[in-house]
Amino acid sequence: MPKTITLTNIMANNEKGWFPATLGNRSWQSSTRTPGDGAKSSVKIIPSGGGECTLTSAEHDLVASHKYYISFKVFYDSAANCTFDWYWPVAEPSAASGLRVNAAAQTWTRASSVFERTSFADGRYPCRFDYNNENGNVTFWFTSCMLFDLTAAFGVGNEPSKEWLDKHIDSFGDTLTVHYYENLGELFADIANAIRTKSGQSGEIFACDFPDRIKNL
Asked: I need a surface site. Which of 38, 120, 126, 157 has the fewest CB within 10 A?
């Protein structure tokens, strides 16, 4: 059976979807507009002028050798073609850079990345969300921000890929659970059980029989 993994959102804020922050080159307003994924609210971000617009969080504990996953959603007021960066610590190089989302207006889209910070030391650092504001001060909404310590949750060497995380983390929460196969033995045992249930047969299934048994379902 797959292992149940609990993920704790480092940016948790009573399930609101955004985090308290110091603002840079922007104003913001609380909003009830959400993507319907469990986030309770969003913030409408209004650029004050050209150049980066930023949200800087409180300090959070960072283990430099760990892998992390950042995910958030944005909604453009009008069509735009902009990128976002995530800093933690707030120093170059950024943790995740050039995150680009769908340029269409009036559509929630997601940006995400897996990263590590081995060029820095363990410690407490603020995070910073950067809107690179490349397309004429377009207003947008921001929510569903999640930052997970993958190494703490899955273990060293077992951290899943960004593609797996994007597929299996399909809702927002201050904590989430996912089901994860740690090794091929567990995976094939579950496949064998599913074949037996579907076919109504019992008994051992040998590795050489798997392709034909699956085709026959």
From this structure: 157
Residue 155 predicted with pLDDT over 50: yes
pLDDT at 184: 47
Return the closest-CA partner of residue 76 out of 113, 111, 49: 111
Return mean pLDDT, the chain: 89
- End-to-end, the C-alpha distance of the chain in Å comes to 21
Q: What residues contact 32, with CB distance under 8 A and at least 6 apart?
A: 41, 42
As a whole number of Å, the CA-based R_g of the chain is 21
Neighbours of 54 (CB within 10 A): 19
Q: How far apart are CA 75 and CA 169, in angstroms?
A: 19
Task: Identify the CA nearest to 18 among candidates 68, 51, 55, 59.
Answer: 55
Identify the weakest region by mean pLDDT among 56-65, 73-82, 191-200.
191-200
Tokens, residue 165: 């995380």
SS3 state at 91: coil
CA dihedral 186, 187, 189, 195 (to 10 degrees): 160
From the centroid of its chain, how far is CA 199?
Answer: 38
CA atoms within 13 A on the CB side of 128: 19
Residue closest to 138 by CA, chosen among 43, 46, 53, 54:
46
Nearest Cα residue to 52 out of 34, 22, 83, 25:
25
